[in-house]
Amino acid sequence: RRYSVCLTEWTSWFNIDHPGGNGDYERLEAIRFYYRERVCSRPTAMEARTTDWVAAAETGEVVHSSLEKGFWCINKEQPYGRTCSNYHVRFQCPPEQSFWTEWGEWGPCTTTVCSDVGIQVRQRSCMSTQPMPLLLVPACQGHHSERRECSTPPCTAKWSPWGRWGSCSVTCGGGRRIRRRTCVRTSETVQCTGRPTETQKCGKSTCPVKCQRVCAEGRPDEDCSRCVCDGHVLHGNVHSVTGVPVAGALVAFASRPKVIRARTDAKGHFRLQGICSSNVTSLIIRKDKFAPVTVSSSSNSTGLSWVSAVLRSAEKPYIVKHPEDKVRYEGGRVLLCCKATGSPAPDKYYWYHNDTLLDRKLYKYQEELVLKDLKPEQAGQYYCKTSSSAGSIKSSPASLTVIAKGAPACNSTPEAHLIRLPLDCVQPGTNSKFYNAGRCPHNKCAGSLDFDMRCRDGGGFCCGVQAMETRTIDCGSYSLPIRSVSQCSCQKCVQPTVLVRGRVVTADNGEPLRFGHIYIGKERAGTTGYQGGFTIQVTPDTQRLVVNFVDPAQKFIDTPKVFILDKKGGSIYHDVKVMRKQAPIDIDSGETNAINLGEMKGEDPIGQLVIPANSFHKDNGDIYEGTVKASVTFIDPRNITTASATPGDLNFVDPEGDMLPLRTYGMFSVDFRDESNKEVLGAGAVQVLLDTQHVKMQEHIPKMKLWSLNPDTGVWEEEGDFSSTTTTGGHGRSKREDRTFLIGNMEIRERRLFNLDVPENRRCYVKVRAYMSDKFLAVEQLEGVVISLINLEPKPGYSANPRAWGRFDSVITGHNGACLPAFCDAQRPDAYTAYVTAMMGGEELEAAPSSPKMNPNIIGVSQPYLDKIDYQRSDHEDPALKKTAFRINLPKPNQNNLDETNGPIYPYQNLIACENAPVDANHFRFFRVEKDKYEYNVVPFEETDLTTWTGDYLSWWPNPQEFRACFIKVKVHGQKEVMVRSRNLGGSHPETIDKLYGIRDIRSTRDMREANTSAACVEFKCSGMLFDQAEVDRSLISIIPQGNCRRIATNSLLQEYLIKHPPVALSNDSHAFTMLAPVDPLGHNYGIYTVTDQNPRVAKEIAIGRCFDGTSDGFSREMKSDSGVALTFSCPERKINRESLFQRLQTNPGLTLSQMARDMRQMEGMQVQRSSTRVVAYPSEQQGRTQGRRVVTTSRRRTVARMQQRQ
């Protein structure tokens, strides 16, 4: 049935005023204000009815109407003191009598300035099809002009050729000559890179005369380079940002930086003789692991000169702008950009193509690489490498695709994509549960860019849907429509909003970090909520997101986290764990203090932090004397619960610029404060002692290093090495025994998070996939699942029972699973073990079971490699434990053993093989526990990959940037849970009316507090604008419980709302409920739950949580069937009145079997006699079941009759 009329004649009903005050006013001017372009300029008729559907003429009320003013009813005009009814009105519009001409050409851009953005305008005219006066012709709908953004080429700045060399400054004794060049630029906002002048030595011949330098004070020095004042001294002081003196710093004149003039002593002091106080002297001061600094001297009238310098820790280069993937046609051009920060700032850039260094002289590159007249052989991987005195770093590789001339930008033929059909949909002939709807590969393509020389191509172009066609799927008893992809082409890429969400809580008891500060780099990006929640919107060009969580209350340690991103799924949920600060202890700054690192019950400390006497300093460099509040928090790898609280991602950058993994033996955070005013104190040289008994891999001992974490980059940077020493007793032990310690020296500067780590080169990758169900079907793989792997250390003498963790990594699954980095060993299979978990939007997935029997087909790994890996799910020995993790050994695969070359563990150099492994190769498995839940969309869409969204009138989600999820709560009275279906059709939009959007099936959830009661939260298609944002569609929703169900109650508020917002869908069937979905976001009082978010999974999770809880702002995973219900059904079980065959076989087997034999012989005789009986074709299984039921029924009746005769 249709629930709207032809929109070319009558508008929808409007009700903008309610009868109150003076009456009811439905003014045409107000209707046009609220519903722009919904009413034509000159209506020809108007109809008014009350909300109870009574025509205005039949109410007996005094009303007024005018096609120019609208409709109104005044209370004081009504007889007998009556008040006006609540009216709604609609208008009749004439057929279209005017039309738009074609758009004209775009006008010129409003700006001519380089690197600027302006506006272009084009226009069209409204033409009439009738020879009528202009004022009587209805106006065209829409705008007569259209505007778009335009841009000009970027501003450029280039040097002119060098001019001639000037004359030499001297004729002898060494001089200089200069040549110049000019910066030719198109704007004042850009500058040329480099210097405008170049100096060359000249006049090198020795002068016959003496030094000509004239000194206002003192005399020239021996080489006549400066003036010297005998007896004058420049005093210097150098300390760190925490006030700790810096010893051994090198001091030189800025004019001659290679000539060392002095070194700082243990107190950070130095002296320079002969410095004249009348001149300002510039000095450069540098030391390893510090950024060099240039300072100028100060002096007074007494002839005393001094200088004070503060050194900051050097920071290795870090890439902040990576080159991006580009696609170009042959003969085109491209710009690749790279930018790094650091202290000191990087000064050299190198570009590589397929790991080959490009010639700087040929390409003339620095931070930017320009490639012109592209050829197919220039396609491949490009990356940049930048360096400074502190180190080097490589960018992420960017892929450049060059499409040959004449080749299509995108393959127009869709690739296969199987859609799972509803459980009750079986296609005749094939019995297949899947249908190939096709899809476009969504790889980047060469589109028509407005300007091709930008670092980032904006949204870019991707291979997307060009055309779709409607097909019909035969499900046997019914049919399903589906929109399948018929043609692909190069389209603008869908750009989902990339979000990082989560919650920050402590690792010990889950206390939230309330109102914590969130930093990205040095910029504050937000604040956590009262429950520790946070949301961060990520820019599209972000490659590595480093977020630092800082507790302003100082209860928790500052925790930098490196978050993985899902640029397809749009949103990833992170459960962030932070460590609570250790309670401070009082120590005497004038004494040597030792603080244990890692105190566990029944275990020795992993090491100690030894602080010499008088090591604490204030910010101004003065030595602090008194009591120190010392808090040292140790993240102990022997405690598996602290693994998720690991700061950073345990990676470091080697001298070549590659990021490599670390294996930790513990991390510690320090916080030293003045007892009186809580001022933060710095500590000078301290010692870190590491007990080697805790290092199970003896080969790690000589490679152990001290590291500190850069909170801005999330990268660990080397602080120093360890040396070995042997002691007897001491260090907190009462027994006399020889122990070997590693001693490391370090300075606690502005960084206060340190690590005891080993660079590990025995690396592998582990292949993991996630599935929709425990059927592990290849077409049901899940994308956007966060897989986490914790490297464990086995307990001595046992291959199980992990003792300690050494590393924590997370990777997001793509269309072909995920490859997680891990440590492995070729000699001992159990040298390294791992603990693996999977999470999707805050929900833990189950791992493949390992008990009661190890099944390689379920686990996904073939024998005999499975025995070597020793796979065990977390509930392997204790069924009461959760099933959401598994533990494995990590033996490095033997490439000479065929059984170990097919996964699931791959050598580190075989990452490409791991990423491209076919689905039938060995891999580990997780699956989502969502039994009896199904979703079908007529326009296929994967919620884990937002880039698969297609703009179509029948798309379930009309906007890829904003997703609105709607759920209705259905209560069920009955002993069993019931499947509830929502069938969603178009209700009022002319393009979708009576057309299917999709189907949702969900089984009701038992209410544990109320007997024989369950409830279901059923998703339905929200009403609202469709993808073209032109008109609202009131979706037609049918809620249908499966089975013997009858509707016994409907929420009164919901029913009242639907009546007051016509049209009203007929819902006479007591076995179902039909409605036109409300446009307004109703709440729990109506039994409707609506949530809008930038990610569909998040919107649905929040709405389901509220629906379970029965509130509009709560969240629960426990069904509460007595709150916030929209519909109530009674679903009693069907009673069985006759004794079943199974029951009769138990009570009297002999009699039953003999009776069945007689009945079957009689049935065969009857079938022979009925030679002309019509034959009905059934599928083989259904035919067997049908005949079986008939035989049993006949035998049952005859047996009962004979027993009655005998009685």
TrEMBL record:
rRNA processing: present as a keyword of the record? no
The keyword Transmembrane is annotated on this UniProt entry: no
Under Gene3D superfamilies, the record lists:
Immunoglobulins (2.60.40.10), Thrombospondin type-1 (TSP1) repeat (2.20.100.10)
| Residue spans of biased composition, Low complexity class | 1182-1194
UniProt domain Ig-like: residue ranges: 317-401
SMART domains reported for this sequence:
IG, IGc2, TSP1
Protein name according to UniProt: Cartilage intermediate layer protein 2
UniProt organism field: Hippocampus comes (Tiger tail seahorse)
